[in-house]
Design goal:
homodimer, mainly alpha, MgtE N-terminal fold, CBS-domain, Tetracycline Repressor, domain 2, 3 domains, three-stranded mixed beta sheet, 8% strand
Chain lengths: 449, 449
C-alpha cells in the first residue's frame, strides 16, 4: 500500500481496508509512510486518525521505527493511554533514544507515562555520557544465577524472553558479577538437567559502560557477536549492545566522518530534515576559517610578484600545481584517516606510514612531473627551462603533499584531536601555500627571475 | 598472551603452556597474533608448529578468522588431513571467500579436500556475480517442511543446528518455496504439538540472489533482521545473509566510498598489505587525469594575462577564490553522495536539493563575500573596487560551487555512474576553471582592465 492508496482510502473512509492493509505491512514501512505524510504536511488530525486505525500492536510496533520528528508529532496528539501503550512496546534503549531527541515538555510526559521500572531504567541510562556504551545499551537481557539447571533456565526464557531484546545469548551471573555467556543453541543441545554454568563459556568478550560506542560496535563486529555484554567497573553486567544498534552506530560514525572530512560540522538530522539555516551554520565556520587562512597564499604570491611580472606564463601553472598538491595530499590523508578509523593503522605505525607514502610519492611525483614537463615543452612551447621548473615543482609538491597528508592526521590523533578534521580542505589549504613556495623558489633558482 | 610471550614460550619449547594459553584466547585474537607473526616474517616452519600446538578445534576456529595472506601461508604447509579438518570447520560462505582470495593451485587443493557436499556448494556460490547477494550468502540455514510439528522441528534443530550459521530464525518451505519464517523464541513459547506453519510469519522480507550486496545489507539493517533469506526467481530459498556478513559489507562499501571520493581506486587489501607499486597504480590515473584537466585553468589565465599584468594584485586572490569554490563544492557533493548512499536522497529529490543548496549558498556566499571584501578593503588597502571585485566573485563562486557540487553527483547516478567519482577532486578541478572565469570577467567588468 503506497502513500496515495492510504490517502484515498482515508478520504473514502475505508478504515477497515486500511486496518487490514496495515496488518500486511512491515512496521518499518508503515513508519516510512508516516514520515512521508508528515513531510507533505498531512494534517495532524488525519495523521492521528490514521494511527488509531491500526491495531494496538501494529501501531505501537511501527511507532518504534518512526523518526523523532514523526514520533513527536504523534506523541503531542496521543492520549496518555496511547502513550503508555507505546512505551510498553518500546525496548528501554529505544525509549532512551526517543527521550534524548524530545523537547523537555514531551520528555516529562513520556516519563510520567512509563511504568516505574522503565522510568528508573531510562533515567539510569540517561546518566551515561553521550557516545558511551552505557548510552546505547539495552537493559533487557536474559541472565541466570549460577546453580540453576538448564531446564529451569528454559522456563525463565519462556516467561521473560518475550520482553527481552535478545534471548539467543544469555548470561550467567554470580552475585551480579558476570561469570559466563551461553547461547540458546548450546542450551538446546545440552542435557536439560545440567547446571547452566557447566555449559556456559567463561572467558567472555565484554565492554565497559564508559567505552566509546564506536569501539564497542567494532568489537562486536570483530568477534561476530550478535550481542556484547556491558559491565561496570565491578564486572557486574548492566546491559548489552545488540548487533542492530551496532550497525546503526557504525553508519552514524561513517556519516559523521564523511561530513567532517568535507569540512561540514556533523548534522544530527538527515539532509532534508536539516533547515537551510542549520546547513549554513554547519558549513560556514570551516569555509570562513579556510578562506582566511588562504590569505597566506596571497602573501607568498605578492612576495614573488616581480617573478611572474617578468615571466607571466608562470601564473598559468599555479592552479595545476596547487591542484595536484591538494589531490595527492587528500589521497594520503583519506587512506590514513580511514585506516585509523577501522583500526588498521595505529600511531605506532608512524614510521611505516611515512616510509610507504614517501616511496609512493616518489613514483607518482616522477610520473606526473615528467608527463607534465614534456607536455609543456612540446605542446605549450614554453621553453625547456619553464618545463623543467614546472616538472620539478610537481615532483616536489607531490612528495610534500603525501608526507603532510599522511602525517597530519596521525599527529592530530596523537594530540587527541579527531583525525578527520585534517582531511582534504585543511590539507589542501596548507599545501596551497607550501606548493607555491616550492614552485616560485624553483622558478627563481632556475629562471633567475 | 601477547606476541613476545608466544615467541619466548616457543623458544623454550613450553608447548603445553602454549596450548593451554591458546585455549583461553578468542580465535579472532589468535588469528590477529598469526598475522602479526607473518608480518614480522616469522619462519613458516615455526608458524605451522605453532598452529599444530593448538587443539584441533581451536586451530580450525582461529583459521577461519585469519586474513587471506595468513591462510595461504598455512595452507601451503598443511597436510591434506589438516586442510580438510579446517574445511569442516568453515561455513560455506567463509570457504567461498577464502577460495576467491587464493591462487589457482591452492584453490584446486582446497576443492580436492572439501567434502563433496561442500565442494558443490562452493562451486555453486562461486557462480553468482561479484557483489551479488548470492556471492555473500551462506547455504547453512535451517528450514522445515510444512506439516511438521514444533517438537519435530526442535529435534531437527538439535540434530543439524550445530552445523548451521544461525538457528535463531528458521524458515518454512513448501516444495522448496519459502512460505514462512519463525524465530526460535516463538517456537520455544508455543505449544510443541502445533504445526510449524501455524506460528510462522508468512509475510517475509526477502532478497533475490542477484540483488546488490550493499542494498541487501541495508535492508537487513533497516528491518533489524539478524538474517535475511535469499530466494531465486522461483521464490525458492537458496541461502541467507547473516548480520555479521552484512556489517562487513557495509564497512567495505564505506571504505570503498572514502577511497573513490579521494580519487583513489579502491584497494582490495588493507593499507599495509598493499604494495607501494599497487598504491601508486591506484592513485596515479586520477592524479594524471586531474592534472591534465587543470590545463584548462591555464588557458583561462593566459586569456586574461593582460588583466593581471595591469593589476598584479589580482593574482594574489586567485588561490583563495579557487579554494573557497573547491571547499564549498565538496561540502555539497559529499553530503549528497552520502545521502544517496544511505538512501536518504533519491534522484526524484533533484529540485528539492537544488533549491535547498541554492539558499544555503546564498547565505554562505553573502557572509564570506562581505567578510572578505571588508578584510581586503581595511587590511590589504587594495582599494574599494578590488574589494568589491573579490567580494562579488566569492558570492558568485560559492553559489556556483554548491549547485555544481550537489547536481553533478545526482547527474552521475542518473546516467548510472558511481556518484562517488564526482567528489572533491573532480568537483574542485571543474570549479577551479569556472571560478577563475567568474573572477576575471568580474575584474574586467568592474576594473575595466
Amino acid at each position: 500500500m503506497n502513500i496515495t492508496d492510504v490517502i484515498t482510502l482515508l478520504e473514502e473512509k475505508k478504515l477497515i481496508t486500511l486496518r487490514s492493509n496495515f496488518e500486511e505491512m512491515h512496521p518499518a514501512d508503515i513508519a516510512a509512510l508516516f514520515s512521508e505524510l508528515i513531510e507533505r504536511n498531512f494534517p495532524e488530525a488525519s495523521l492521528i486518525l490514521l494511527y488509531r486505525v491500526m491495531s494496538k500492536e501494529v501501531a505501537a510496533e511501527s511507532f518504534t521505527y518512526m523518526e523523532p520528528s514523526a514520533q513527536e508529532t504523534l506523541i503531542n496528539s496521543f492520549t496518555d493511554r496511547e502513550l503508555s501503550e507505546v512505551l510498553d512496546e518500546l525496548y528501554v534503549d529505544d525509549a532512551v533514544d526517543m527521550v534524548e531527541e524530545m523537547p523537555a515538555n514531551v520528555v516529562s510526559r513520556i516519563l510520567k507515562n512509563a511504568d516505574p521500572a522503565m522510568r528508573s531504567q531510562i533515567n539510569n541510562l540517561l546518566k551515561y555520557p553521550v557516545d558511551s556504551a552505557g548510552s546505547i545499551m539495552t537493559t533487557e537481557f536474559v541472565y541466570f544465577r549460577t546453580g540453576k539447571t538448564i531446564s529451569e533456565c528454559f522456563d525463565r526464557i519462556r516467561s521473560v524472553g518475550i520482553m527481552k531484546e535478545t534471548v539467543y545469548t544469555c548470561y550467567v551471573t554470580d552475585k551480579r558479577k558476570l561469570v559466563g555467556a551461553v547461547s540458546l543453541l548450546e542450551m538446546l543441545t545440552a542435557d536439560p538437567s545440567m547446571l547452566i554454568e557447566d555449559i556456559a563459556e567463561s572467558n567472555i568478550i565484554t565492554v565497559n559502560t564508559l567505552d566509546d560506542k564506536e569501539s564497542v560496535a567494532r568489537t562486536l563486529s570483530k568477534y561476530d557477536l550478535h550481542a556484547i555484554p556491558v559491565v561496570d567497573n565491578e564486572d557486574r553486567i548492566v546491559g548489552i549492545v545488540t548487533f542492530d544498534d551496532a550497525i546503526d552506530v557504525i553508519e552514524e560514525e561513517n556519516t559523521e566522518d564523511f561530513s567532517k572530512m568535507a569540512a561540514v560540522a556533523p548534522l544530527d538530522e538527515s539532509y532534508f530534515k536539516t533547515t537551510v539555516w542549520h546547513h549554513a551554520r554547519s558549513r560556514l565556520p570551516w569555509l570562513l576559517f579556510l578562506m582566511l587562512s588562504a590569505t597566506l597564499t596571497g602573501f607568498v604570491i605578492s612576495k614573488y610578484e616581480d617573478a611572474f611580472e617578468k615571466v607571466a606564463i608562470l601564473v598559468t601553472f599555479m592552479p595545476m600545481i596547487m591542484g595536484t598538491a591538494g589531490n595527492s595530499g587528500s589521497q594520503s590523508s583519506t587512506l590514513i584517516i580511514r585506516g585509523m578509523a577501522v583500526d588498521e593503522i595505529n600511531l605506532r605505525d608512524f614510521l611505516k606510514v611515512f616510509w610507504k607514502e614517501f616511496r609512493v610519492a616518489l613514483i607518482c611525483g616522477a610520473v606526473l612531473g615528467v608527463v607534465n614537463g614534456l607536455r609543456i615543452y612540446y605542446f605549450e612551447k614554453a621553453g625547456a627551462l619553464i618545463a623543467v621548473t614546472v616538472g620539478l615543482s610537481i615532483v616536489g609538491v607531490v612528495i610534500l603533499a603525501k608526507i603532510v597528508g599522511s602525517m597530519l592526521p596521525m599527529l592530530a590523533k596523537k594530540i587527541h584531536l579527531d583525525p578527520a578534521i585534517m582531511a582534504t580542505p585543511m590539507i589542501s589549504t596548507i599545501l596551497d601555500t607550501c606548493s607555491l613556495l616550492i614552485y616560485f623558489s624553483l622558478a627563481v633558482l632556475i629562471l633567475h627571475v
